[in-house]
Amino acid sequence: MKVPVYSKFLLVLHQPFLHGLREGMAYKVDHEYDYLFKIVLIGDSGVGKSNILSRFTRNEFCLESKSTIGVEFATRTLQVEGKTVKAQIWDTAGQERYRAITSAYYRGAVGALLVYDITKAQSFENVTRWLRELRDHADSNIVIMLAGNKSDLNHLRAVQETDGQKLAEQEGLSFLETSALEAQNVEKAFQMILLDIYQIVSKKALAAQESAKAVVPTQRTTINVGDYGNNNQRKGCCSN
């Protein structure tokens, strides 16, 4: 079993990698994985994005996690409809003073998990602002899920589940309530996002094959999605 790769970034990234993000691509590779999909986590600071990231990629949770500074990402490889998909999950900082740098990281994203805290009404009210920013900077057909996190704190609930469902329906988003602490629906949320992305990319790939059967496949095929309308055992503390 491969160990997930976990890295932290501020502003320094290799230029070839950034170039790929600018082009808004999902990558199909013939070796260790079939597809690489970039997914961004967005939402207010303190809603639990970093713990969702660590729960999904490393099956860890930290009660004393600190606010993310800059941007961090982690990867996990899993199977989606018989294909090996490498999910690259980016956690963009929620603090207002870092908002200026986050727009660059929306580029190239084919999926997004927009997170609010069910115990903080303000984080839910800010969902529309985050959604507007995402749609301003990302591809128009990016797959988006709305997640009401910290469902384990139901006794402190300030946002009803029906309110989350209603907003998601109005905006055309999928919706789940999650708990990074209890590992509830975190796996399911990413599986749903990845499945939706894969189905879009598969349609594009099939259309490309039918229209250009004479093209000899290269080692790496780039698929532009811009044309389109596990383990629940808990582990120890992580560092953010």
Automatic annotation (TrEMBL):
<dbReference type="InterPro" id="IPR005225">
    <property type="entry name" value="Small_GTP-bd"/>
</dbReference>
<dbReference type="InterPro" id="IPR027417">
    <property type="entry name" value="P-loop_NTPase"/>
</dbReference>
<dbReference type="InterPro" id="IPR050209">
    <property type="entry name" value="Rab_GTPases_membrane_traffic"/>
</dbReference>
<dbReference type="GO" id="GO:0005886">
    <property type="term" value="C:plasma membrane"/>
</dbReference>
<protein>
    <submittedName>
        <fullName>Uncharacterized protein</fullName>
    </submittedName>
</protein>
<dbReference type="GO" id="GO:0005525">
    <property type="term" value="F:GTP binding"/>
</dbReference>
<comment type="similarity">
    <text>Belongs to the small GTPase superfamily. Rab family.</text>
</comment>
<dbReference type="InterPro" id="IPR001806">
    <property type="entry name" value="Small_GTPase"/>
</dbReference>
<keyword id="KW-0472">Membrane</keyword>
<keyword id="KW-0449">Lipoprotein</keyword>
<keyword id="KW-0636">Prenylation</keyword>
<keyword id="KW-0547">Nucleotide-binding</keyword>
<dbReference type="GO" id="GO:0003924">
    <property type="term" value="F:GTPase activity"/>
</dbReference>
<keyword id="KW-0342">GTP-binding</keyword>
<dbReference type="Pfam" id="PF00071">
    <property type="entry name" value="Ras"/>
</dbReference>
